[in-house]
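Appendix C reproduces, verbatim, an entry submitted by the partner laboratory led by Prof. M.T., so that reviewers can inspect both the input and the predicted structure.
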Amino acid sequence: MKTPNTILFDLDGTLTNTDSLHLQTWQDILKEYGLSIDQEFYDRHFSGRLNQDIIPDILPQLSVAEATALGDRKEAEFRHRAVESLVPLSGLLTLLDWIDTHSLKKGIVTNAPRQNAEFMVQVLELRDRFPTIVIAEELEFGKPHPMPYLVGLEKLGASAEHAIVFEDSPTGIQSAVRAGIFTIGVASTHSPDALYDLGASLVISDFTDPKVMKTLVSGFPSS
């Protein structure tokens, strides 16, 4: 069994459950383009993906500049709506206290735009807890490519074999697994079966699940 010394977290859907708010914001904005989307469509085409990949898929007629402007407008509206609704996922603060007490390294690796990421950690009062935040859209490749998590490990001076990732989205699970990191799926936005099928080694509903502390204390199997 390997003992973890580094914990990497996704942001949206992992530290806080934002999927319903993202869905509602996209639904309202896309009405202007004559598009109607439901949860199933959102899960398949939006969840965990970069705006620069999403918008050309659903609105291929837009120019690069128009797509960028649309993405910026959507995220600004999301932040406006999220100010009073963001709360940490159950058990998160207790887990972070344990991580800090035991001097484990930790960081955030997210496909969210920087403005969103900075906004969310500020609203959640987590900024001082996470000095290391990797923004995937600022890298050559975002999730599901392994690069974001590999960069996270590099920034923390950590290795994949002694790290754990908490992730909720298909692209995030794929990214972490491809980076060779023991991955715990958070079933806040997708079913446990879907996360296991994508390669998650464990799946939890939130951070109060006893499997979290058992894995941190007792370790996890070698790959």
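The first strand starts at residue 6 and ends at 9. Additional entries are available on request from the coordinating office.
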